[in-house]
Amino acid sequence: MEKEYLLANMTWQEVEKRLEDCDIALVPLGSTEQHGPALPVSTDHFIATQFAHKTAETVWDNHKVVVTPPITFGFSPHHMEFKGTITLSELTLSSMIADICHSLAQHGFKKIVIVNGHGGNETAISNALHDMHGNIDAKVYHLNWYDMAGDKIKEIVTPPVYHACDMETSVAWYLGQRVLEDKRVDEPGKVLVPGFIIPDGLAPPPRATVSYSFKEITESGVVGYSTKATKEKGKLIADLVLERLVSFIKEIGKM
Questions:
Q1: Per residue in 168-183, is it b (16+ CB within 10 Å) or e — as a string?
Q2: Is 1 within a domain?
Q3: Reported pTM
Q4: Quick one: CA torsion of 103, 108, 112, 118, rounded to 10 degrees?
């Protein structure tokens, strides 16, 4: 397949024709932010885009979905002390998401799936979805790829699961991202309030939150054990993410 699902490669007439077959669009969303010494700043949008592409390829025989160009910038002010990070404001990101979805809906896409790869985007996405509700002729869904395989992640990776960690490095590596193997580091991150504010996405309750910059909790930009990462772990996680993404697309394709 010559990536026939890529919206950017299609003419307007081809898009019009495609809509006769399928009204589902996937929108990859990530960030451009530091991911420690071993991973590029493109990691979040790279992973989200790879999952969107693989999903489209897998469902192609039954659902001729389109994949839009990725939104490569996200909400990342907490990483700005590390060079190379580029952040949008939350309002800008939320507006961008809404504008893209309104454009797609106007053309006839009735189901829009935002495939997100950066936790810092979640509030902006939620705000956009709430603002669009009742004001857009489409159903807009949001999923985080890492939430699609939380059970497998908890089973096989070394905690903490947070940023440029065992989990994220493994998945990025398996999907083909550039990884500087000799630059991988282990830094579990500073605990801000013991028992309550712990940099670990899978930490059990009780949990409290506070705003902080990443420089307050890590010198390297890593929170986790990236030396534990392997392509084999990445494959196990990515295969399950893809399986569940495909299942989701098939389900909304029936609607």
A1: bbbbbbbbebebeeee
A2: no
A3: 0.97
A4: -20
